[in-house]
Design brief:
The structure holds 2 protein chains of 2 kinds.
Chain A lengths: L4 H28 L4 H6 L8 H11 L5 H13 L13 H36 L7 H8 L1 H7 L2 H15 L12 H30 L2 H8 L4 H39 L4 H10 L3 H29 L6 H5 L9 H13 L9 H13 L2
Helix pairs in contact in A: 1-13, 5-6, 5-9, 5-11, 5-12, 5-13, 7-9, 8-9, 8-11, 9-11, 11-12, 11-13, 12-13
Chain B lengths: L4 H9 L3 H19 L20 E6 L14 H10 L4 E3 L6 E3 L7 E2 L5 E5 L14 H13 L15 E6 L4 E6 L6 H4 L10 H4 L20 E7 L3 E6 L20 E6 L3 H9 L5 E3 L6 H6 L3 E6 L3 E7 L9 H10 L2 H8 L29 H10 L4 E2 L5 E3 L2 E2 L1 E4 L8 H13 L4 E4 L4 H7 L8 E6 L5 H7 L23 H11 L4 H17 L3 E5 L2 E6 L3 E2 L2 E2 L5 E2 L4 E2 L4
Parallel strand pairs in B: 1-10, 1-11, 17-18
Antiparallel strand pairs in B: 2-3, 4-5, 5-7, 6-7, 8-9, 9-10, 11-21, 12-21, 13-19, 13-20, 14-15, 15-16, 22-25, 23-24
Helix pairs in contact in B: 1-2, 9-11, 14-15, 15-16
Classes of the chains: A mainly alpha, B alpha+beta.
Chain lengths: 366, 569
């Protein structure tokens, strides 16, 4: 069984708990910061409001109630889908988020896919490139690409890409780009630092899997390098990569803040940056909850993908409750067979009768 | 973003000195080549000629607009839009600062004590939603601007004081009544903060005036809002039927441009780069170090005076350390204003010769009042009893160090650099200056407390005598924190004289006497060493050569009505 319902429900319950904790932590931390959005907006001497007028506004918006009652108010709001109103502009947070989310989602997906392609390409080239000969340096150079990519400051990369490809060569316009045109440079900016940890983990795990016994066995059986990569190595090396993909999602959100600011894309990152400067707590709370939600969902999906990719992880829950493996029961054996088959080894060990038959065949043979 | 650069490159560089220098060289070089000579020169024709109709101007702002409620459009991105979409009762000449009729057929009839104003409204003016401009509508506009509406979080206009009520006299005339003399009102009706709104727009709340609802804002200026992409772009297009330009102008009828696209990008290098590379036509807020680069590329650089209170620091005399006038005089003598202007700015930032800019109403020359003389500063401080020094070299009296804090005026140019330079200058005479860190919200909040900020850096622009009141009065911006109703004000440290002089200015209806009253305020502030002005703050714009006829209103907000474009970018 690939998908365990009980496990899924448990994970979903955890997800709800994580969301609640993130919301609470964000609320408490934002309340601790001295000053709030109302002060930032209305106490600005440029507006010339008297202290009575500010007090009236504060009363009208309920800003001076205790933090706990405001917490309960926001929490019930969030539970009913009402994110409240931006302190800075007065617009409904849901409207602002709805306008920003699609652009960020598109950037995230394209950035992520590009990062994935980059990571796989670099990792394969760095592990399957020529180990000797005149081009051996290519492999060594590629091996250090992850450290380079992770060190590049995102904002600098973004500015550099704009300066070179837009202002210098005029390939893309930053002023009135088409939808695809607007996506090219931001995607690259997001993808480069994002690909670094994935590449690093893939290089390591491919190298490890290459050194395993079963790979040597398969090589001895005469498999070509390409066949090995696709059928044997990739399948085993991809698991740690999958784990890191779940983790770098957070970086995707952080990267969006900088990328969208540099490229002037109205997305979650840009409104976050603006909300921080204006102490716009309702927007920040909504962003925290949305980011947490995305993080939880991605990691849940990654966890559910493990057994799909690796059969070894499929059966542990059904057998763990049993009285052990002493009877070498059928399910364990079939799992082991499947695992062996997945790495290209035929165990020839389907069940007892088959084993007996083969013994008999052996006995009668001479 | 630009400020992060050294930190980020330092982080990348690591510990090894050689590696660090190579890496930072790499980072710096990369930025340098891309920012410098590589972008092509603007070779467009700069010859003027007859205005050409057509074309959409693309214009970059550093921040997105926040609110198009007229009294709140002092914020530059808001004002840059409101000034072009709205029309006002009167029009103020940016050169002479004289008032001329616009939507009013004549200058208002003003009662001798300046408590009633009667305007006759022009016929045939319509809003962009088709509704006509009527006296009743004008009355509703000023009822809102003059009183505000807390329930809708719409604040009162700081430019309109003592507003009482409006009265529609007949189908062309409207009268405004004030509870006390309000001589600044005529000028107030000419600013973009009094841009007239259609009835449907007047019913909006703060959310309605914010991003997301821009196309519902109906005004009667030469342009109207047609499209909005939240956080990125706002498009305004010319009104074909616009036929009520100020009669004083040579240009009448429709605007030359087809429209303006206001674009927002927070990243300075992108904004400048877009104009240098020809992707955009203009940009506001060119920083002083970049002016030469922009000119070298053949672009037009405009430094427009803002005609207001100069960029200054205000000494909050109510704080114990600044209560002694000799200490304030010593600080003034210790600060080298010329060095600030020479090191950090360009000739577009002229050294202040008074509390007000030379083009401002009420200006009086006080240029001899702030002489740089560190020896005198030392003497004054010694005389004031600050003779001992602590181990760090700062002056001490009765166990207390002479340590002060200043805010960073984030909207003002290079405020942090200015304060850093002053920090060094004060260090030489043994005064410790700390610069209050933090973002705009924190600066706003900290500046409201005497304990956190004792020296307040600011400027404000409005082309009227009332500008002095807006800045120094305890009822308005209160730069000195000098309000008698403050909770910390019962220790007798309030100086009531400032508010008295400002009230006298505000209550004086006669223009000639207003000048005298304004000079009296400034003389008192200078004599008491309450203020040290640095420079006349301009708004610096850069435009491609194909942009002709760019102008600004009296306080430096762009006015695109008579702007026109030729050829390609």
């Amino acid at each position: 069984m690939i998908l365990d319902t009980r496990y899924l429900l448990l994970r979903l319950g955890q997800a709800v708990l994580v969301l609640l904790l993130a919301f609470t932590a964000a609320f408490v931390l934002l309340s601790l910061i001295p000053g709030d959005g109302l002060t930032a907006r209305f106490a600005d001497p440029a507006l010339g409001l008297s202290s009575e007028q500010i007090t009236q506004i504060r009363e009208a918006t309920g800003a001076d109630e205790s933090w706990f009652s405001r917490y309960l108010l926001s929490l019930t709001g969030f539970l009913t889908g009402d994110f409240g109103y931006s302190v800075q502009t007065g617009a409904a947070v849901s409207t602002i988020i709805a306008a920003a989310l699609p652009s960020t989602a598109v950037l995230a997906v394209s950035g992520f896919l590009t990062a994935l392609v980059l990571a796989v390409a670099i990792a394969v080239a760095a592990t399957y490139g020529p180990a000797t000969g005149p081009f051996a340096w290519v492999r060594r150079a590629l091996d250090s690409v992850p450290s380079l990519f992770i060190s590049v400051p995102v904002f600098w990369l973004g500015i550099l890409l704009i300066q070179v490809f837009s202002f210098q060569f005029g390939f893309v316009s930053v002023v009135s780009p088409g939808p695809a045109e607007a996506l090219v440079l931001p995607t690259l900016t997001v993808a480069v630092p994002l690909s670094a940890p994935i590449t690093q983990v893939l290089i390591r795990s491919i190298t490890e899997v290459q050194a395993s016994g079963f790979v040597k066995v398969t090589t001895a059986k005469g498999a070509s390098e390409m066949w090995m990569l696709v059928h044997t190595v990739a399948r085993n090396a991809v698991l740690p990569g999958l784990t890191i993909i779940g983790l770098v999602f957070g970086e995707l959100v952080a990267g969006a803040v900088v990328t969208e600011t540099v490229f002037g894309r109205n997305g979650i990152g840009l409104i976050t940056a603006q909300a921080v400067t204006h102490r716009d707590n309702p927007i920040l709370l909504a962003v925290v909850v949305i980011a947490t939600f995305g993080y939880v969902i991605i990691n849940l999906a990654v966890d559910l993908l493990y057994p799909v990719i690796d059969v070894r992880l499929r059966t542990q829950r059904t057998t763990a409750s049993g009285k052990g493996l002493k009877n070498s029961d059928a399910s364990t054996r079939s799992a082991l067979t499947a695992t062996a088959a997945s790495v290209g080894v035929d165990l020839d060990w389907t069940d007892d009768t088959a084993a007996e038959t083969s013994t008999e065949t052996k006995a009668t043979n001479p | 973003m630009t400020d992060l650069r050294p930190t980020a490159s330092a982080r990348v560089a690591g510990h090894d000195l050689d590696r660090r220098s190579i890496l930072s060289l790499g980072l710096g070089f990369g930025t340098l080549i891309t920012l410098s000579a590589c972008t092509p020169r603007d070779t467009g024709t700069s010859a003027s000629g007859h205005p050409v109709r057509g074309g959409v101007l693309t214009y970059f702002e550093p921040q997105t607009w926040t609110l198009l409620y007229p009294p709140s459009v002092g914020f530059y991105p808001n004002g840059g839009i409101m000034n072009n979409i709205s029309a006002r009762l009167l029009w103020q000449d940016p050169e002479t600062l004289e008032l001329h009729p616009w939507l009013a057929t004549d200058l208002p009839e003003i009662s001798a004590d300046a408590t009633t104003y009667t305007f006759t409204i022009r016929d045939g003016v319509t809003y962009s939603d088709g509704t006509p401009l009527t006296p009743a509508n004008v009355a509703r506009n000023f009822d809102l601007f003059g009183r505000g509406d807390e329930a809708r979080t719409l604040p009162v206009s700081e430019q309109i004081s003592n507003y009482e009520r409006s009265e529609v006299l007949d189908d062309r005339r409207v009268r405004f009544h004030f509870s006390a003399p309000s001589p600044g009102f005529a000028q107030a009706t000419s600013t973009m903060n009094a841009g007239l709104l259609a009835d449907s727009t007047l019913a909006l709340d703060a959310e309605g005036f914010g991003p997301g609802g821009a196309t519902r804002i109906h005004t009667c200026g030469p342009f109207h809002i047609t499209d909005e992409t939240i956080g990125q772009k706002l498009s305004v297009r010319a009104r074909e039927d616009y036929d009520w330009a100020p009669p004083h102008l040579a240009h009448q009828g429709r605007a030359h441009l087809d429209g303006i696209d206001y674009l927002t990008n927070n990243e300075y290098s992108v904004r400048i780069g877009a104009v240098l590379s020809g992707q955009a036509d203009g940009v506001r807020d060119v920083q002083a170090p970049d002016e030469s680069r922009v000119s070298e590329h053949g672009l037009r650089l405009y430094a427009k005076a803002t005609n207001g209170i100069n960029n200054s620091i205000n000494f909050r005399f109510r704080h114990a350390l600044l209560a002694d006038v000799s200490v304030r005089r010593a600080l003034i003598a210790a600060i080298d204003r010329q060095e600030i202007v020479d090191k950090l700015f360009t000739p577009n930032y002229p050294l202040a010769t008074g509390l007000l800019a030379e083009g401002a109403m009420g200006y009086t020359d006080q240029s001899g009042s702030w002489v740089h003389d560190p020896d005198r500063a030392d003497r004054l401080l010694d005389q004031a009893g600050w003779t001992e020094r602590n181990t760090a070299g700062y002056r001490v009296k009765d166990g207390q160090t002479l340590a002060l804090a200043v805010n960073i005026a984030l909207p003002q140019p290079r405020s942090n650099e200015v304060q850093t330079l002053i920090q060094q200058q004060l260090r030489r005479v043994g005064v410790h200056l700390s610069i209050n860190p933090g973002d705009q919200s924190k600066q706003t909040l900290d500046a409201l407390e005497l304990d956190t900020v004792q020296i307040y850096h600011s400027m404000v622009a409005r082309a009227d005598f009332d500008n002095l009141r807006s800045n120094y009065s305890s009822a308005n911006r209160d730069v000195f924190l000098n309000g008698p109703d403050r909770s910390d004000a019962d220790d007798g440290s309030i100086d009531p004289r400032i508010d008295e002089l400002l009230d006298a200015l505000a209550a004086e209806p006669d223009p000639g006497k207003r000048q005298q009253a304004a000079e009296a305020v400034q003389d008192y502030l200078v004599e008491q060493a309450y203020v040290l002005p640095f420079f006349e703050e301009p708004q610096v714009f850069a435009f491609r050569r194909r942009v002709h006829g760019f102008a600004t209103e009296p306080v430096g907000r762009p006015d695109f009505y008579s702007t026109w474009l030729t050829g390609e970018r």
